C-alpha cells in the first residue's frame, strides 16, 4: 500500500510543478492526463482542483476536490479546497461546514482557520471572521500570510488608513 501511495504522489508531481511555475494550462492538461490513467489518484485530483481554481473554473475545481475526498476521505487539503471553491461560488453555509469539518480533523489548522475567517468576512459576520483570523495568527503562519491576515483584521476593525497620494503624481 505504501508503494501505491508513493507512486500516486510521483505521478502527480509533474503537474504540481507546472502549477508552481505558473504554467496553469499545462498543469491542467498534465493532471487531467494523470487522472484519466488513474482516476483514484487523490494527489492529481487535488492539484487539478488547485489548477482549475487558479483559472477561475470553480465548479470544475470543486468537482476535482470532491473527487479527491471521495477516494481519500481524510485528505485535509482537498477538504479545505472544497471550502474555498464553495466560498467563491457564494455557497457560504457549505463552505463553513467544510471549514468546521477540517478543524474537527485538525484543530487550529491555519488553512481551515483562513477559510473560515474569509467566509465569515464575506458574509458580513465580522465578529466570527475576527475570531478565526486572530486564532490563525496564533499558529505562527508564514510572514506573507501573517501580514495579509493582520491587514484583514485591521480592515475588520476599521483601522485601515487610506493611501496618501504620491506627491510626484505617480500612483
Topology record:
Blueprint: H1 2-20, H2 24-37, H3 42-55, H4 58-71, H5 76-88, H6 92-105, H7 110-122, H8 126-138, H9 143-156
Oligomer: single chain
Indicate how many domains the architecture comprises. 2
Shape: globular
In terms of per-residue confidence, which ranges show pLDDT below 50 for 5 or more consecutive residues?
Answer: none
Quick check: average pLDDT?
94
Name given to the CATH homologous superfamily of the largest domain: Tetratricopeptide repeat domain
**The CATH C-level class name of the largest domain:** Mainly Alpha
Overall SS class: mainly alpha
How many angstroms separate the termini? 57 Å
Number of helices: 9
- Radius of gyration over C-alpha positions, nearest whole angstrom: 18 Å
How much helicity do the residues have? over 70%
CATH architecture classification name of the largest domain: Alpha Horseshoe
How is the biggest beta sheet arranged? none
CATH topology of the largest domain: Serine Threonine Protein Phosphatase 5, Tetratricopeptide repeat
**Number of DSSP strand runs:** 0
Order of helices and strands: HHHHHHHHH
Beta-strand fraction estimate: under 5%
Amino acid at each position: 500500500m505504501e508503494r501505491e501511495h508513493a507512486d500516486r504522489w510521483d505521478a502527480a508531481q509533474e503537474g504540481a510543478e507546472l502549477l508552481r511555475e505558473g504554467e496553469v494550462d499545462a498543469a491542467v492538461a498534465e493532471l487531467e492526463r494523470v487522472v484519466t490513467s488513474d482516476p483514484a489518484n487523490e494527489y492529481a485530483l487535488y492539484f487539478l482542483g488547485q489548477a482549475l481554481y487558479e483559472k477561475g473554473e470553480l465548479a470544475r475545481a470543486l468537482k476535482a476536490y470532491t473527487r479527491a475526498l471521495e477516494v481519500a476521505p481524510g485528505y485535509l487539503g482537498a477538504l479545505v479546497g472544497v471550502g474555498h471553491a464553495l466560498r467563491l461560488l457564494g455557497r457560504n453555509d457549505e463552505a463553513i461546514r467544510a471549514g468546521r469539518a477540517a478543524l474537527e480533523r485538525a484543530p487550529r489548522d491555519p488553512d481551515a482557520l483562513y477559510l473560515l475567517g474569509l467566509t465569515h468576512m464575506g458574509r458580513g459576520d465580522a465578529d466570527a471572521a475576527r475570531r478565526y483570523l486572530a486564532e490563525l495568527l496564533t499558529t505562527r503562519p508564514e510572514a506573507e500570510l501573517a501580514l495579509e491576515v493582520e491587514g484583514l483584521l485591521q480592515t475588520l476593525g476599521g483601522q485601515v488608513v487610506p493611501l496618501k497620494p504620491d506627491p510626484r503624481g505617480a500612483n
